[in-house]
Design brief:
2 copies of one chain form a homodimer. In chain A, 36% of the residues lie in helices and 21% in strands. Chain A is an alpha/beta fold and 318 residues long. The first copy, chain A, has 2 domains: 2-119 and 302-316, ATPase, nucleotide binding domain (Nucleotidyltransferase, domain 5, 2-Layer Sandwich), CATH 3.30.420.40; 128-296, Nucleotidyltransferase, domain 5 (2-Layer Sandwich). In chain A, strands 3-2-1-4-8 form a 5-stranded mixed beta sheet. The first copy, chain A, has a 5-stranded mixed beta sheet with strand order 11-10-9-12-13, sandwiched between helices. Chain A has a 3-stranded antiparallel beta sheet with strand order 5-6-7, with no helix packed on it. In chain A, helix 1 (39-55) crosses helix 2. Chain A is globular and about 60 Å long. At the A-B interface, strand 10 and helix 6 of A face strand 10 and helix 6 of B.
Protein backbone atom coordinates (compact mmCIF):
# COMPACT_ATOMS: atom_id res chain seq x y z
CA UNK A 1 0.00 0.00 0.00
CA UNK A 2 1.22 3.51 -0.86
CA UNK A 3 0.54 6.21 1.70
CA UNK A 4 0.94 9.99 2.06
CA UNK A 5 1.44 11.87 5.32
CA UNK A 6 -0.94 14.81 5.56
CA UNK A 7 0.20 17.39 8.12
CA UNK A 8 -1.82 20.18 9.74
CA UNK A 9 0.52 22.71 11.37
CA UNK A 10 -1.52 24.72 13.86
CA UNK A 11 -0.43 27.28 16.41
CA UNK A 12 -1.09 24.87 19.30
CA UNK A 13 -0.97 21.35 17.85
CA UNK A 14 0.54 19.65 14.83
CA UNK A 15 -1.66 16.83 13.56
CA UNK A 16 -0.57 14.05 11.21
CA UNK A 17 -2.67 11.56 9.27
CA UNK A 18 -1.63 8.75 6.89
CA UNK A 19 -3.93 9.01 3.91
CA UNK A 20 -4.27 6.54 1.03
CA UNK A 21 -5.15 7.34 -2.57
CA UNK A 22 -8.90 7.08 -1.90
CA UNK A 23 -8.68 9.53 1.03
CA UNK A 24 -8.97 6.92 3.79
CA UNK A 25 -7.07 7.66 6.98
CA UNK A 26 -5.01 4.70 8.29
CA UNK A 27 -3.41 6.25 11.38
CA UNK A 28 -2.98 9.62 13.03
CA UNK A 29 -1.17 11.36 15.86
CA UNK A 30 -0.54 14.83 17.17
CA UNK A 31 2.08 16.71 19.16
CA UNK A 32 2.53 20.19 20.61
CA UNK A 33 3.78 22.74 18.06
CA UNK A 34 4.67 25.16 20.85
CA UNK A 35 7.21 22.76 22.40
CA UNK A 36 9.54 23.35 19.43
CA UNK A 37 10.41 27.04 19.02
CA UNK A 38 13.45 25.93 16.99
CA UNK A 39 12.38 24.88 13.48
CA UNK A 40 15.07 22.17 13.10
CA UNK A 41 14.01 20.50 16.37
CA UNK A 42 10.42 20.74 15.19
CA UNK A 43 11.14 19.09 11.82
CA UNK A 44 13.14 16.30 13.54
CA UNK A 45 10.12 15.55 15.70
CA UNK A 46 7.71 15.75 12.76
CA UNK A 47 9.86 13.34 10.73
CA UNK A 48 10.12 10.88 13.63
CA UNK A 49 6.39 11.02 14.34
CA UNK A 50 5.59 10.29 10.70
CA UNK A 51 8.10 7.44 10.38
CA UNK A 52 6.91 5.82 13.64
CA UNK A 53 3.31 6.09 12.46
CA UNK A 54 4.19 4.34 9.17
CA UNK A 55 6.22 1.59 10.87
CA UNK A 56 3.40 0.80 13.30
CA UNK A 57 0.80 0.31 10.57
CA UNK A 58 -0.62 -3.24 10.63
CA UNK A 59 -0.11 -3.52 6.87
CA UNK A 60 3.26 -2.83 5.22
CA UNK A 61 3.11 0.64 3.63
CA UNK A 62 5.35 2.79 1.46
CA UNK A 63 5.41 6.48 2.39
CA UNK A 64 5.50 8.36 -0.92
CA UNK A 65 5.37 11.97 0.20
CA UNK A 66 4.52 14.55 2.86
CA UNK A 67 1.96 17.29 2.26
CA UNK A 68 1.48 20.13 4.70
CA UNK A 69 -1.32 22.62 5.28
CA UNK A 70 -0.21 25.60 7.35
CA UNK A 71 -1.13 29.22 8.03
CA UNK A 72 0.75 31.84 5.98
CA UNK A 73 2.28 29.15 3.78
CA UNK A 74 3.43 29.90 0.24
CA UNK A 75 3.15 26.92 -2.10
CA UNK A 76 5.39 28.58 -4.66
CA UNK A 77 8.20 29.37 -2.18
CA UNK A 78 7.76 26.19 -0.11
CA UNK A 79 7.82 28.30 3.03
CA UNK A 80 5.86 29.65 5.97
CA UNK A 81 6.22 33.42 6.10
CA UNK A 82 5.65 35.64 9.14
CA UNK A 83 2.88 33.50 10.64
CA UNK A 84 1.58 35.49 13.62
CA UNK A 85 0.54 32.39 15.59
CA UNK A 86 3.75 30.36 15.12
CA UNK A 87 7.05 30.77 16.98
CA UNK A 88 9.28 30.62 13.86
CA UNK A 89 9.85 34.16 12.65
CA UNK A 90 10.53 35.52 9.17
CA UNK A 91 10.50 33.22 6.16
CA UNK A 92 10.93 29.52 7.06
CA UNK A 93 11.94 27.32 4.07
CA UNK A 94 10.18 24.31 5.50
CA UNK A 95 9.98 22.28 2.26
CA UNK A 96 13.71 22.37 1.44
CA UNK A 97 14.66 21.67 5.08
CA UNK A 98 12.36 18.67 5.41
CA UNK A 99 13.12 17.33 1.93
CA UNK A 100 16.84 17.30 2.74
CA UNK A 101 16.07 14.99 5.67
CA UNK A 102 13.49 12.60 4.23
CA UNK A 103 14.40 12.29 0.54
CA UNK A 104 10.71 12.27 -0.43
CA UNK A 105 8.43 14.75 -2.20
CA UNK A 106 7.39 17.44 0.30
CA UNK A 107 4.80 20.15 -0.43
CA UNK A 108 3.21 22.91 1.58
CA UNK A 109 0.24 25.19 1.02
CA UNK A 110 -1.92 27.68 2.87
CA UNK A 111 -4.29 25.53 4.95
CA UNK A 112 -7.48 26.86 3.38
CA UNK A 113 -6.18 26.46 -0.17
CA UNK A 114 -5.02 22.92 0.65
CA UNK A 115 -8.50 22.21 2.04
CA UNK A 116 -9.97 23.19 -1.32
CA UNK A 117 -7.72 20.67 -3.03
CA UNK A 118 -8.76 18.05 -0.45
CA UNK A 119 -12.41 18.76 -1.24
CA UNK A 120 -11.68 18.26 -4.94
CA UNK A 121 -9.80 14.98 -4.55
CA UNK A 122 -11.61 13.36 -1.63
CA UNK A 123 -14.75 15.35 -0.86
CA UNK A 124 -17.86 16.75 -2.53
CA UNK A 125 -16.08 18.76 -5.23
CA UNK A 126 -15.01 15.67 -7.18
CA UNK A 127 -15.33 16.42 -10.89
CA UNK A 128 -15.90 20.14 -10.37
CA UNK A 129 -13.57 22.53 -12.18
CA UNK A 130 -14.75 25.83 -10.68
CA UNK A 131 -15.49 26.20 -6.98
CA UNK A 132 -14.51 28.09 -3.83
CA UNK A 133 -13.83 26.56 -0.40
CA UNK A 134 -14.31 28.74 2.67
CA UNK A 135 -12.97 27.60 6.06
CA UNK A 136 -14.84 29.14 8.96
CA UNK A 137 -12.67 28.55 12.03
CA UNK A 138 -10.89 31.00 14.31
CA UNK A 139 -10.50 33.04 11.14
CA UNK A 140 -11.80 32.76 7.58
CA UNK A 141 -9.66 31.20 4.85
CA UNK A 142 -10.31 30.77 1.16
CA UNK A 143 -9.24 28.39 -1.56
CA UNK A 144 -10.24 29.12 -5.15
CA UNK A 145 -10.28 26.48 -7.89
CA UNK A 146 -10.77 27.61 -11.50
CA UNK A 147 -10.28 25.60 -14.71
CA UNK A 148 -9.69 22.58 -12.47
CA UNK A 149 -6.61 24.16 -10.88
CA UNK A 150 -6.04 25.82 -7.54
CA UNK A 151 -5.25 29.52 -7.84
CA UNK A 152 -1.90 30.02 -6.10
CA UNK A 153 -1.24 33.60 -7.07
CA UNK A 154 2.03 35.22 -8.08
CA UNK A 155 4.03 33.97 -5.09
CA UNK A 156 1.58 31.58 -3.49
CA UNK A 157 -0.58 33.82 -1.31
CA UNK A 158 -3.86 33.91 -3.22
CA UNK A 159 -7.16 33.28 -1.43
CA UNK A 160 -6.77 35.53 1.61
CA UNK A 161 -10.53 36.07 1.52
CA UNK A 162 -10.82 36.69 5.27
CA UNK A 163 -8.99 39.96 4.89
CA UNK A 164 -11.07 41.43 2.12
CA UNK A 165 -12.53 44.69 3.35
CA UNK A 166 -16.31 44.49 3.25
CA UNK A 167 -17.00 47.64 5.25
CA UNK A 168 -15.48 50.42 3.10
CA UNK A 169 -12.38 50.62 5.30
CA UNK A 170 -14.44 50.98 8.46
CA UNK A 171 -15.81 48.41 10.88
CA UNK A 172 -14.20 45.67 12.98
CA UNK A 173 -10.46 45.15 12.90
CA UNK A 174 -9.04 41.71 12.02
CA UNK A 175 -5.97 40.06 13.51
CA UNK A 176 -3.98 41.40 10.56
CA UNK A 177 -5.19 44.92 11.33
CA UNK A 178 -7.55 45.12 8.35
CA UNK A 179 -10.50 47.39 9.11
CA UNK A 180 -13.74 45.74 8.07
CA UNK A 181 -12.09 42.47 7.08
CA UNK A 182 -14.59 39.67 6.41
CA UNK A 183 -13.23 37.27 9.05
CA UNK A 184 -13.97 39.79 11.80
CA UNK A 185 -17.63 38.96 11.03
CA UNK A 186 -17.74 35.54 9.41
CA UNK A 187 -15.78 33.04 11.55
CA UNK A 188 -16.14 31.45 14.97
CA UNK A 189 -14.47 34.54 16.44
CA UNK A 190 -16.63 36.82 14.29
CA UNK A 191 -19.78 35.13 15.60
CA UNK A 192 -18.63 35.75 19.19
CA UNK A 193 -17.95 39.38 18.36
CA UNK A 194 -21.43 39.62 16.83
CA UNK A 195 -22.96 38.22 20.05
CA UNK A 196 -21.29 41.10 21.91
CA UNK A 197 -22.64 43.54 19.31
CA UNK A 198 -26.16 42.16 19.74
CA UNK A 199 -25.91 42.30 23.55
CA UNK A 200 -24.95 45.95 23.16
CA UNK A 201 -27.68 46.74 20.66
CA UNK A 202 -30.70 44.84 21.97
CA UNK A 203 -32.38 44.45 25.35
CA UNK A 204 -33.71 40.87 24.85
CA UNK A 205 -33.35 38.46 27.74
CA UNK A 206 -30.62 35.97 26.87
CA UNK A 207 -28.49 33.39 28.61
CA UNK A 208 -25.61 34.92 26.65
CA UNK A 209 -25.67 37.83 29.12
CA UNK A 210 -24.26 35.39 31.73
CA UNK A 211 -21.31 34.18 29.64
CA UNK A 212 -18.05 36.14 29.32
CA UNK A 213 -16.49 36.59 25.88
CA UNK A 214 -13.54 34.33 26.76
CA UNK A 215 -15.86 31.55 27.97
CA UNK A 216 -18.08 31.66 24.89
CA UNK A 217 -17.93 28.89 22.26
CA UNK A 218 -19.71 28.48 18.94
CA UNK A 219 -21.36 25.29 20.16
CA UNK A 220 -22.98 27.18 23.06
CA UNK A 221 -24.37 29.79 20.70
CA UNK A 222 -25.82 27.01 18.52
CA UNK A 223 -27.40 25.26 21.53
CA UNK A 224 -28.96 28.53 22.67
CA UNK A 225 -30.28 29.25 19.17
CA UNK A 226 -31.92 25.79 19.24
CA UNK A 227 -33.61 26.80 22.50
CA UNK A 228 -34.91 30.00 20.90
CA UNK A 229 -32.49 32.47 22.46
CA UNK A 230 -33.16 35.74 20.59
CA UNK A 231 -29.58 37.06 20.80
CA UNK A 232 -28.14 33.78 19.50
CA UNK A 233 -30.65 33.71 16.64
CA UNK A 234 -30.03 37.35 15.72
CA UNK A 235 -26.27 36.71 15.77
CA UNK A 236 -26.49 33.83 13.29
CA UNK A 237 -28.74 35.84 10.96
CA UNK A 238 -26.34 38.80 11.05
CA UNK A 239 -23.36 36.54 10.32
CA UNK A 240 -25.11 34.83 7.40
CA UNK A 241 -26.27 38.14 5.98
CA UNK A 242 -22.72 39.50 5.86
CA UNK A 243 -21.16 36.23 4.67
CA UNK A 244 -23.80 35.72 1.97
CA UNK A 245 -23.29 39.23 0.56
CA UNK A 246 -19.51 38.76 0.55
CA UNK A 247 -19.80 35.41 -1.24
CA UNK A 248 -22.01 37.04 -3.90
CA UNK A 249 -19.14 39.43 -4.60
CA UNK A 250 -16.69 36.53 -4.84
CA UNK A 251 -18.93 34.89 -7.45
CA UNK A 252 -18.49 37.90 -9.75
CA UNK A 253 -14.75 37.19 -9.71
CA UNK A 254 -14.48 33.52 -10.66
CA UNK A 255 -18.10 32.34 -11.13
CA UNK A 256 -17.85 29.08 -9.18
CA UNK A 257 -20.34 26.26 -9.63
CA UNK A 258 -20.38 25.77 -5.86
CA UNK A 259 -19.12 27.31 -2.65
CA UNK A 260 -18.21 24.85 0.11
CA UNK A 261 -18.28 25.87 3.75
CA UNK A 262 -15.98 23.94 6.10
CA UNK A 263 -14.45 24.35 9.56
CA UNK A 264 -15.80 24.60 13.09
CA UNK A 265 -18.57 27.11 12.48
CA UNK A 266 -20.24 24.77 9.96
CA UNK A 267 -21.12 22.47 12.87
CA UNK A 268 -23.84 25.06 13.61
CA UNK A 269 -25.64 23.54 10.60
CA UNK A 270 -28.69 25.34 9.24
CA UNK A 271 -28.18 28.23 11.67
CA UNK A 272 -25.26 29.42 9.58
CA UNK A 273 -26.12 27.78 6.23
CA UNK A 274 -29.70 29.05 5.82
CA UNK A 275 -29.10 32.80 6.21
CA UNK A 276 -25.86 32.59 4.20
CA UNK A 277 -27.68 30.83 1.35
CA UNK A 278 -30.52 33.36 1.45
CA UNK A 279 -28.27 36.42 1.27
CA UNK A 280 -25.91 34.85 -1.27
CA UNK A 281 -28.81 34.30 -3.68
CA UNK A 282 -30.34 37.70 -2.91
CA UNK A 283 -27.10 39.54 -3.70
CA UNK A 284 -26.10 37.59 -6.83
CA UNK A 285 -25.97 39.43 -10.11
CA UNK A 286 -28.86 38.36 -12.38
CA UNK A 287 -26.58 36.34 -14.68
CA UNK A 288 -25.49 34.14 -11.74
CA UNK A 289 -28.83 33.64 -9.99
CA UNK A 290 -29.82 30.02 -9.47
CA UNK A 291 -26.45 28.76 -10.73
CA UNK A 292 -24.31 28.75 -7.55
CA UNK A 293 -24.72 26.00 -4.95
CA UNK A 294 -23.85 26.66 -1.31
CA UNK A 295 -22.79 23.32 0.18
CA UNK A 296 -21.37 21.88 3.34
CA UNK A 297 -17.95 20.28 2.88
CA UNK A 298 -17.97 16.55 2.21
CA UNK A 299 -15.10 16.18 4.70
CA UNK A 300 -16.69 17.69 7.82
CA UNK A 301 -15.75 14.66 9.95
CA UNK A 302 -12.12 14.90 8.82
CA UNK A 303 -9.33 17.42 9.35
CA UNK A 304 -9.40 19.65 6.24
CA UNK A 305 -5.70 20.65 6.48
CA UNK A 306 -4.57 16.98 6.78
CA UNK A 307 -6.76 15.93 3.86
CA UNK A 308 -5.59 18.98 1.92
CA UNK A 309 -1.94 18.30 2.69
CA UNK A 310 -2.33 14.71 1.48
CA UNK A 311 -4.17 15.97 -1.62
CA UNK A 312 -1.15 18.12 -2.52
CA UNK A 313 0.90 14.95 -3.06
CA UNK A 314 -1.82 12.69 -4.49
CA UNK A 315 -2.90 15.43 -6.94
CA UNK A 316 0.56 15.41 -8.53
CA UNK A 317 0.30 11.65 -9.15
CA UNK A 318 -3.04 11.78 -10.94
CA UNK B 1 0.25 34.69 -44.47
CA UNK B 2 -2.26 33.37 -41.98
CA UNK B 3 -4.69 35.85 -40.51
CA UNK B 4 -7.42 35.97 -37.83
CA UNK B 5 -10.43 38.28 -37.84
CA UNK B 6 -10.84 39.98 -34.48
CA UNK B 7 -14.35 41.37 -33.96
CA UNK B 8 -15.54 43.94 -31.41
CA UNK B 9 -19.33 43.87 -31.15
CA UNK B 10 -20.43 47.11 -29.54
CA UNK B 11 -23.91 48.53 -29.02
CA UNK B 12 -23.38 51.16 -31.73
CA UNK B 13 -20.60 49.87 -34.01
CA UNK B 14 -19.10 46.52 -34.90
CA UNK B 15 -15.39 46.80 -35.61
CA UNK B 16 -13.27 44.21 -37.43
CA UNK B 17 -9.49 43.91 -37.67
CA UNK B 18 -7.32 41.33 -39.47
CA UNK B 19 -4.60 40.37 -37.01
CA UNK B 20 -1.51 38.26 -37.71
CA UNK B 21 0.26 35.95 -35.26
CA UNK B 22 2.46 38.77 -33.94
CA UNK B 23 -0.53 41.00 -33.24
CA UNK B 24 -0.08 43.32 -36.23
CA UNK B 25 -3.25 44.70 -37.79
CA UNK B 26 -3.37 44.42 -41.59
CA UNK B 27 -6.78 45.92 -42.32
CA UNK B 28 -9.90 47.03 -40.50
CA UNK B 29 -13.44 48.19 -41.05
CA UNK B 30 -16.59 48.93 -39.11
CA UNK B 31 -20.34 48.94 -39.64
CA UNK B 32 -23.43 49.88 -37.65
CA UNK B 33 -24.59 47.17 -35.25
CA UNK B 34 -27.94 48.89 -34.82
CA UNK B 35 -28.81 48.53 -38.53
CA UNK B 36 -29.26 44.76 -38.02
CA UNK B 37 -31.86 43.98 -35.35
CA UNK B 38 -32.15 40.50 -36.88
CA UNK B 39 -29.20 38.35 -35.87
CA UNK B 40 -29.07 36.37 -39.13
CA UNK B 41 -28.91 39.56 -41.21
CA UNK B 42 -26.22 40.81 -38.87
CA UNK B 43 -24.09 37.69 -39.23
CA UNK B 44 -24.47 37.76 -43.04
CA UNK B 45 -23.09 41.29 -43.04
CA UNK B 46 -20.30 40.43 -40.61
CA UNK B 47 -19.23 37.47 -42.75
CA UNK B 48 -19.26 39.56 -45.94
CA UNK B 49 -17.31 42.41 -44.33
CA UNK B 50 -14.64 39.98 -43.12
CA UNK B 51 -14.35 38.15 -46.45
CA UNK B 52 -14.14 41.42 -48.42
CA UNK B 53 -11.45 42.68 -46.06
CA UNK B 54 -9.39 39.52 -46.60
CA UNK B 55 -9.81 39.57 -50.39
CA UNK B 56 -8.68 43.18 -50.61
CA UNK B 57 -5.44 42.60 -48.70
CA UNK B 58 -2.41 43.44 -50.88
CA UNK B 59 -0.78 40.14 -49.87
CA UNK B 60 -2.55 36.79 -50.29
CA UNK B 61 -3.84 35.70 -46.88
CA UNK B 62 -5.53 32.65 -45.39
CA UNK B 63 -8.27 33.42 -42.87
CA UNK B 64 -7.92 30.77 -40.13
CA UNK B 65 -10.56 31.84 -37.65
CA UNK B 66 -12.86 34.50 -36.24
CA UNK B 67 -12.62 35.64 -32.62
CA UNK B 68 -15.22 37.93 -31.08
CA UNK B 69 -15.22 40.14 -28.00
CA UNK B 70 -18.73 41.17 -26.97
CA UNK B 71 -20.68 42.35 -23.93
CA UNK B 72 -22.49 39.61 -21.96
CA UNK B 73 -20.79 36.89 -23.97
CA UNK B 74 -20.29 33.41 -22.55
CA UNK B 75 -17.19 31.68 -23.88
CA UNK B 76 -18.42 28.31 -22.64
CA UNK B 77 -21.84 28.58 -24.29
CA UNK B 78 -20.64 30.41 -27.42
CA UNK B 79 -23.43 32.91 -26.98
CA UNK B 80 -24.40 36.47 -26.11
CA UNK B 81 -26.99 36.42 -23.34
CA UNK B 82 -29.42 39.21 -22.48
CA UNK B 83 -27.06 42.05 -23.43
CA UNK B 84 -28.87 45.24 -22.39
CA UNK B 85 -27.24 47.38 -25.12
CA UNK B 86 -27.83 45.00 -28.05
CA UNK B 87 -31.05 44.49 -30.01
CA UNK B 88 -30.91 40.65 -29.98
CA UNK B 89 -32.86 39.42 -26.99
CA UNK B 90 -32.45 36.27 -24.90
CA UNK B 91 -29.61 33.84 -25.55
CA UNK B 92 -28.06 34.23 -29.02
CA UNK B 93 -25.95 31.19 -30.11
CA UNK B 94 -23.67 33.35 -32.21
CA UNK B 95 -20.78 30.87 -32.47
CA UNK B 96 -22.80 27.95 -33.86
CA UNK B 97 -24.70 30.23 -36.26
CA UNK B 98 -21.56 31.85 -37.65
CA UNK B 99 -19.58 28.60 -37.76
CA UNK B 100 -22.31 26.97 -39.86
CA UNK B 101 -21.79 29.73 -42.44
CA UNK B 102 -18.03 30.09 -42.54
CA UNK B 103 -16.66 26.60 -41.80
CA UNK B 104 -13.85 28.08 -39.70
CA UNK B 105 -13.07 28.12 -35.97
CA UNK B 106 -15.24 30.79 -34.30
CA UNK B 107 -14.90 31.84 -30.67
CA UNK B 108 -16.54 34.47 -28.49
CA UNK B 109 -15.77 35.88 -25.07
CA UNK B 110 -16.80 38.70 -22.79
CA UNK B 111 -14.97 41.76 -24.17
CA UNK B 112 -12.99 42.49 -20.99
CA UNK B 113 -11.89 38.88 -20.57
CA UNK B 114 -10.87 38.76 -24.23
CA UNK B 115 -8.89 41.96 -23.68
CA UNK B 116 -6.95 40.22 -20.89
CA UNK B 117 -6.04 37.44 -23.30
CA UNK B 118 -5.00 40.07 -25.89
CA UNK B 119 -2.74 41.68 -23.29
CA UNK B 120 -1.15 38.29 -22.60
CA UNK B 121 -0.52 37.40 -26.24
CA UNK B 122 0.23 40.78 -27.79
CA UNK B 123 0.64 43.35 -25.03
CA UNK B 124 2.54 43.96 -21.81
CA UNK B 125 1.48 40.77 -20.02
CA UNK B 126 3.61 38.52 -22.23
CA UNK B 127 5.13 35.79 -20.06
CA UNK B 128 2.94 36.63 -17.04
CA UNK B 129 0.86 33.80 -15.57
CA UNK B 130 -1.12 35.77 -12.96
CA UNK B 131 -2.62 39.16 -13.74
CA UNK B 132 -5.89 41.08 -13.92
CA UNK B 133 -7.01 43.35 -16.76
CA UNK B 134 -9.50 46.11 -16.00
CA UNK B 135 -11.26 47.97 -18.82
CA UNK B 136 -12.40 51.44 -17.83
CA UNK B 137 -14.86 52.55 -20.49
CA UNK B 138 -18.55 53.32 -20.29
CA UNK B 139 -18.55 50.60 -17.62
CA UNK B 140 -15.88 48.56 -15.87
CA UNK B 141 -14.99 45.07 -17.08
CA UNK B 142 -12.56 42.54 -15.71
CA UNK B 143 -10.47 39.69 -17.06
CA UNK B 144 -8.59 37.46 -14.63
CA UNK B 145 -5.67 35.26 -15.64
CA UNK B 146 -4.33 32.72 -13.13
CA UNK B 147 -1.89 29.86 -13.72
CA UNK B 148 -1.50 31.20 -17.25
CA UNK B 149 -5.17 30.61 -18.06
CA UNK B 150 -8.12 32.92 -18.31
CA UNK B 151 -10.73 32.29 -15.64
CA UNK B 152 -13.98 31.64 -17.53
CA UNK B 153 -16.13 30.53 -14.63
CA UNK B 154 -18.73 27.79 -14.50
CA UNK B 155 -20.65 28.92 -17.58
CA UNK B 156 -18.38 31.62 -18.92
CA UNK B 157 -19.42 34.70 -16.96
CA UNK B 158 -16.47 35.19 -14.59
CA UNK B 159 -14.85 38.60 -14.20
CA UNK B 160 -17.91 40.82 -13.77
CA UNK B 161 -15.82 43.05 -11.53
CA UNK B 162 -17.78 46.21 -12.34
CA UNK B 163 -20.77 44.85 -10.48
CA UNK B 164 -19.04 43.94 -7.25
CA UNK B 165 -20.70 45.88 -4.45
CA UNK B 166 -18.11 48.10 -2.78
CA UNK B 167 -20.53 50.16 -0.71
CA UNK B 168 -22.18 47.60 1.60
CA UNK B 169 -25.31 47.45 -0.54
CA UNK B 170 -25.71 51.21 -0.50
CA UNK B 171 -24.44 53.92 -2.83
CA UNK B 172 -24.78 54.54 -6.55
CA UNK B 173 -26.80 52.17 -8.73
CA UNK B 174 -25.19 50.55 -11.79
CA UNK B 175 -26.84 49.84 -15.13
CA UNK B 176 -27.51 46.30 -13.86
CA UNK B 177 -29.26 47.71 -10.80
CA UNK B 178 -26.47 46.81 -8.36
CA UNK B 179 -26.34 49.25 -5.46
CA UNK B 180 -22.77 50.40 -4.84
CA UNK B 181 -21.37 48.52 -7.84
CA UNK B 182 -17.77 49.47 -8.61
CA UNK B 183 -18.41 50.67 -12.17
CA UNK B 184 -20.79 53.35 -10.89
CA UNK B 185 -17.60 54.96 -9.51
CA UNK B 186 -14.67 53.68 -11.55
CA UNK B 187 -15.39 54.13 -15.28
CA UNK B 188 -15.82 57.04 -17.67
CA UNK B 189 -19.46 57.24 -16.58
CA UNK B 190 -18.45 56.89 -12.91
CA UNK B 191 -16.06 59.83 -13.26
CA UNK B 192 -18.86 61.98 -14.69
CA UNK B 193 -21.12 60.98 -11.81
CA UNK B 194 -18.33 61.89 -9.40
CA UNK B 195 -18.02 65.34 -11.00
CA UNK B 196 -21.74 65.84 -10.22
CA UNK B 197 -21.13 64.64 -6.65
CA UNK B 198 -18.24 67.11 -6.23
CA UNK B 199 -20.30 69.98 -7.68
CA UNK B 200 -22.96 69.17 -5.10
CA UNK B 201 -20.51 68.85 -2.23
CA UNK B 202 -18.05 71.70 -2.81
CA UNK B 203 -18.36 75.40 -3.61
CA UNK B 204 -15.10 75.76 -5.61
CA UNK B 205 -15.25 77.77 -8.80
CA UNK B 206 -15.03 75.39 -11.74
CA UNK B 207 -15.64 75.44 -15.47
CA UNK B 208 -17.45 72.16 -14.86
CA UNK B 209 -20.37 74.19 -13.47
CA UNK B 210 -21.01 75.35 -17.07
CA UNK B 211 -21.16 71.88 -18.64
CA UNK B 212 -24.26 69.68 -18.52
CA UNK B 213 -23.91 66.00 -17.60
CA UNK B 214 -24.82 64.87 -21.10
CA UNK B 215 -22.23 67.20 -22.68
CA UNK B 216 -19.43 66.10 -20.37
CA UNK B 217 -16.58 63.88 -21.64
CA UNK B 218 -13.63 62.33 -19.85
CA UNK B 219 -11.21 64.24 -22.07
CA UNK B 220 -12.71 67.56 -20.91
CA UNK B 221 -12.30 66.57 -17.25
CA UNK B 222 -8.64 65.70 -17.95
CA UNK B 223 -8.01 69.01 -19.73
CA UNK B 224 -9.55 70.91 -16.83
CA UNK B 225 -7.49 68.96 -14.29
CA UNK B 226 -4.37 69.96 -16.27
CA UNK B 227 -5.47 73.59 -15.93
CA UNK B 228 -5.82 73.17 -12.15
CA UNK B 229 -9.60 72.97 -11.94
CA UNK B 230 -10.29 71.94 -8.31
CA UNK B 231 -13.48 69.94 -9.05
CA UNK B 232 -11.76 67.99 -11.85
CA UNK B 233 -8.77 67.24 -9.62
CA UNK B 234 -10.96 66.19 -6.67
CA UNK B 235 -12.98 63.94 -9.01
CA UNK B 236 -9.90 62.04 -10.23
CA UNK B 237 -8.60 61.61 -6.67
CA UNK B 238 -11.96 60.27 -5.49
CA UNK B 239 -12.13 57.85 -8.43
CA UNK B 240 -8.60 56.58 -7.83
CA UNK B 241 -9.22 56.20 -4.12
CA UNK B 242 -12.23 53.96 -4.69
CA UNK B 243 -10.67 52.02 -7.57
CA UNK B 244 -7.40 51.48 -5.68
CA UNK B 245 -9.19 50.13 -2.60
CA UNK B 246 -11.30 47.79 -4.76
CA UNK B 247 -8.23 46.50 -6.60
CA UNK B 248 -6.56 45.76 -3.24
CA UNK B 249 -9.51 43.50 -2.43
CA UNK B 250 -9.18 41.78 -5.81
CA UNK B 251 -5.52 41.04 -5.05
CA UNK B 252 -6.54 39.00 -1.99
CA UNK B 253 -8.50 36.75 -4.33
CA UNK B 254 -5.97 35.77 -7.01
CA UNK B 255 -2.74 37.59 -6.04
CA UNK B 256 -1.84 38.91 -9.49
CA UNK B 257 1.67 40.02 -10.36
CA UNK B 258 0.21 43.01 -12.20
CA UNK B 259 -3.06 44.81 -12.80
CA UNK B 260 -3.44 46.39 -16.24
CA UNK B 261 -5.74 49.33 -16.80
CA UNK B 262 -7.14 49.77 -20.30
CA UNK B 263 -9.99 51.59 -22.05
CA UNK B 264 -10.96 55.21 -22.56
CA UNK B 265 -10.45 56.47 -19.00
CA UNK B 266 -6.77 55.43 -19.11
CA UNK B 267 -6.20 58.26 -21.62
CA UNK B 268 -6.39 60.54 -18.57
CA UNK B 269 -2.88 59.24 -17.75
CA UNK B 270 -1.43 60.05 -14.35
CA UNK B 271 -4.66 61.71 -13.24
CA UNK B 272 -6.24 58.29 -12.90
CA UNK B 273 -3.11 56.12 -12.49
CA UNK B 274 -1.42 58.00 -9.63
CA UNK B 275 -4.27 58.01 -7.09
CA UNK B 276 -5.23 54.45 -8.03
CA UNK B 277 -1.66 53.26 -7.47
CA UNK B 278 -1.44 55.13 -4.15
CA UNK B 279 -4.65 53.66 -2.73
CA UNK B 280 -3.99 50.19 -4.13
CA UNK B 281 -0.67 50.03 -2.26
CA UNK B 282 -2.13 51.63 0.86
CA UNK B 283 -4.94 49.07 1.09
CA UNK B 284 -2.90 45.95 0.26
CA UNK B 285 -2.54 43.31 2.93
CA UNK B 286 1.04 43.28 4.31
CA UNK B 287 1.90 40.02 2.51
CA UNK B 288 1.15 41.63 -0.88
CA UNK B 289 2.74 45.05 -0.38
CA UNK B 290 5.35 46.00 -2.98
CA UNK B 291 4.55 42.93 -5.09
CA UNK B 292 1.68 44.14 -7.32
CA UNK B 293 2.39 46.39 -10.31
CA UNK B 294 -0.30 48.74 -11.58
CA UNK B 295 0.36 49.23 -15.30
CA UNK B 296 -1.15 50.84 -18.34
CA UNK B 297 -2.13 48.36 -21.05
CA UNK B 298 0.50 47.77 -23.74
CA UNK B 299 -2.27 47.97 -26.33
CA UNK B 300 -3.66 51.44 -25.61
CA UNK B 301 -3.42 52.49 -29.26
CA UNK B 302 -5.32 49.39 -30.37
CA UNK B 303 -8.89 48.14 -29.90
CA UNK B 304 -8.73 45.76 -26.91
CA UNK B 305 -11.79 43.73 -27.96
CA UNK B 306 -10.44 43.21 -31.51
CA UNK B 307 -7.01 42.21 -30.18
CA UNK B 308 -8.68 40.01 -27.58
CA UNK B 309 -10.97 38.39 -30.13
CA UNK B 310 -7.96 37.59 -32.32
CA UNK B 311 -6.09 36.28 -29.26
CA UNK B 312 -8.89 33.77 -28.64
CA UNK B 313 -8.02 32.02 -31.90
CA UNK B 314 -4.23 32.50 -31.86
CA UNK B 315 -4.04 31.29 -28.24
CA UNK B 316 -5.47 27.91 -29.31
CA UNK B 317 -2.73 27.51 -31.91
CA UNK B 318 0.19 28.17 -29.55
Amino acid sequence: MKIVAGVDIGGTYTKVGLIDKQGNSHANCSFSTKDYPNIDDYLDTLKNEIFTLVENLPEKAELIGIGIGAPNASSRNGSIENAPNLAWKGSVPIVSKLQAQVNLPVKIMNDASAAALGEMLFGSAKGMTDFIAITLGTGLGGGVVANGQLIDGFDGFAGELGHIDIMKGDGRITGLNVKGGLEAYASATGLKRTVMHMLAKHMDDSELRSIAYNDLHGSTITQLAEKGDPIAIKSFKYTGKILGAALANFVAFSQPQAIFLMGGLVKSGHWILSPTKKYLEKNLLQVYKGKVQLLESGLTDKNPAIMGGAALIWNDLK
